[in-house]
Amino acid sequence: MNCISRKDIQFCYQTYGSGQKKLIAFHGVGQEATVFAAWGEAFEQRYTIYAFDVFFHGKSFWNCPKTYLSTDCWQSLIEAWQAKVGTETFEVLGFSMGCRLAVATAVLFPQQVKACYLIAPEGLPPRWVYRLATGSWLGRGLFLSLMRAQWPWLLLGRWATYRTKRQRKFWLFIRELTQKPAQRLQIYHTWLLLRRFGGWLNPLATQAAQGAMSVYICEGSRDKLVRPRDLRRLRRALPEAVYLRFRVGHAPLLAASLKYFTQQGLPPHKASEASQRQP
């Protein structure tokens, strides 16, 4: 594993494949860079994939006095990665929360990024619950207290067992992410880190409209975390994007997207057919 280091920051990534094209990938909460190992295997001849551990995950850490990620800091980290691997152009991919980092990278490097793949784009734009939990010192204090407490999560686990089969899968998934105190604090710190990291949709829409960048958005019709109706504003902001819907939930969407792109190519060879898959 390679790392980009600063005084209080370490940003690490795994490298998969040896293809000429470069793609950087960002995972979701509770995951690590290794979730993209299958992508590296599938596209090893055409792509070199640099899968990053998001801060507070895997080998990456954030001990900076600032509790939020700034645009300048993020831009300098990506520029350091570019210098390290020696590339000018690349593509970006994000899953769930990682889509925020993918979109920010696409907007900050409009001449270098040729395609942007957003899979289950969580927080685009940020939901009211995220703004409530991170937008003020009071909200952050209540959010921290909730994540440190044990009893709400025990009740969640019991309540989940009484849901319908489809609902139960979702709530058991949430329970897996929040079962241990360290997992809940990981969510807390990650949410706080990205709380000022937004406002990227309009610039991304402009780039897509100008044809400078292809944008592909994958959604799951059974996704209870990022529901299709949650993406309405995203659709209005990005009408030029190619929308792909799969009959899966949140977690399986990464594998379903990989299967599709493996068959159609990355980017898809038949963009017109992909466009027809819009719901």
Summarize the structure in short:
The protein has 279 residues and is an alpha/beta fold. It contains twelve helices and nine strands.
What's the CATH topology name of the largest domain? Rossmann fold
CATH top level of the largest domain is Alpha Beta
Compressed to H and E, one letter per element, the order equals: EEEHEEHEHEHHHHHHEHEHH
How much helix, percentage-wise, in residues? 40-55%
Averaging pLDDT over every residue, what do you get? Answer: 85
Q: Tell me, briefly, the overall form.
A: globular
Q: Compute the number of helices.
A: 12
Can you offer a commentary on this structure?
The longest helix has 15 residues, at 71-85. Strands 1, 2, 3, 4, 5, 6, 7, 8 and 9 form a nine-stranded mixed beta sheet that branches. By secondary structure, this protein is an alpha/beta fold. 43% of the residues lie in helices and 18% in strands. The protein contains twelve helices and nine strands. The N and C termini lie far apart (40 Å). Helix 5 (137-148) packs antiparallel against helix 8 and helix 6 packs antiparallel against helix 7. Strand 3, helix 1 (37-42) and strand 4 form a beta-alpha-beta unit. The chain folds into two domains: 2-125 and 198-275, 3-Layer(aba) Sandwich (Rossmann fold), CATH 3.40.50.1820; 130-190, no CATH class.
